[in-house]
Amino acid sequence: MENSPMIGGIEAGGTKFVLAVASSPAEILARHEVPTRSPDDTLAEITAWFRGQPPVCAIGIASFGPAVIDPAHEHWGRIGATPKPQWSNFDLAGYFKNEFDVPVGFDTDVNGAALAEDSFGAGRDASSLVYVTVGTGIGGGIVIDGQPVHGAAHPEMGHIFPRRHASDKSFAGSCPAHGDCLEGLACGPAIIERWGKSLSELPDNREALDVIASYLGQLCHSVFAMTAAETIVLGGGVMKTPGLLQRVRDVSKQLDAGYFPGGRRHSIVRPGLQDKSGLIGAVMLGERVALNCA
User: How far apart are CA 31 and CA 237, in angstroms?
Assistant: First the structure.
């Protein structure tokens, strides 16, 4: 095992970076967390940690977005316009490629998590999977036949506009770009702005649970309608709220009204890998570009 080529994995989040050195996605040998601060401070600590581990022959990065993931784009590997101070347009992939002189795989954090859940988690028996994280923001990634779906950019499922819940008409929404898009209505900060606490801290607030379940159920209904995906995996901190997952399922089923031909093949589930989906996905991204590993 000690002589096996090592792969580095980085789950880059707005709150923290989670790091791994692994012999394969299924064999993570070392793991470490670094709080997200300025690029200089954050990356210096990350670099020091990797220097203290066995050398890696490739690094995979599953990054918070927006991110430039088109390999043909001149800014591939960069963070897009983000509210995180100093991170907009930062060349994250280029930094690690230059620092360690190894190939770098780069994709969004949700695409990385989707890859991991598709191969090792809740989607092992499905040919198509959508992973959605509901936390500080809302984002989603699609995997079909083992490949993440890319287009002009990456999917932005958190920025669709759901129908407003009957008891949630006055809240303007928290998204700085779109106001009351899905993320602006149902992400963690939007919940706290409305009700003063996280959803899991509001166990007796049926209205709050119904409002958030309505928006997430609409998302799932739309995903099934537009992609025909078999499995939707709902992860992130908000989804740890007791009772929320079942309410989301109920809303999606009500909206379907028995119409979709996929029927029972459509499922809405928790992550099979718990909180490890993004990190395992990052290692998978590294493994895919590990041309120099012998």
Answer: 21
Does 38 fall in a domain?
yes
Examine residue 293 and state whether it is found in any structural domain, yes or no: no
Whole-structure pTM value: 0.91
Q: How far is the C-alpha of 62 from the C-alpha of 113, rounded, in Å?
A: 8
Are residues 62 and 140 both part of a single domain? Answer: no
Instruction: State whether 127 and 265 are in the same domain.
Output: yes
Alpha-carbon dihedral sign for residues 216, 81, 83, 179: negative
Residue 85, number of CB atoms within 10 A of its CB = 9
> Is residue 292 predicted with pLDDT exceeding 70?
no
Residues 126 and 265 in one domain: yes
| Range of weakest confidence among 1-5, 53-57, 119-123 | 1-5
Indicate whether 33 and 67 sit together in one domain. Answer: yes
Q: Are 133 and 182 in contact (CB under 8 A)?
A: no
User: Quick one: CA dihedral 237, 241, 242, 247, positive or negative?
Assistant: negative
What band does 150 get if pLDDT is binned at 50, 70 and 90? confident
Buried b (16+ CB within 10 A) or exposed e, 136-163: bbbbbbbbbeeebbbeeebbbbbbbebe
Q: Which domain holds residue 252?
A: 122-270
Domain count along the chain: 2
Residue with the bigger pLDDT between 47 and 203: it is 47
Read off the CATH number of the domain in which 250 is found.
3.30.420.40
The torsion of the CA quartet 41, 45, 46, 49, rounded to 10 degrees, works out to 170
- The pLDDT score that the predictor gives to residue 49 is 98
In this structure, are 128 and 94 located in the same domain? no
Report the b/e string of 170-201 with b at 16+ CB within 10 A: ebebbbeebebbbbbbbbbebbeebbeebbee
Is the model's pLDDT at 104 over the cut of 50? Answer: yes
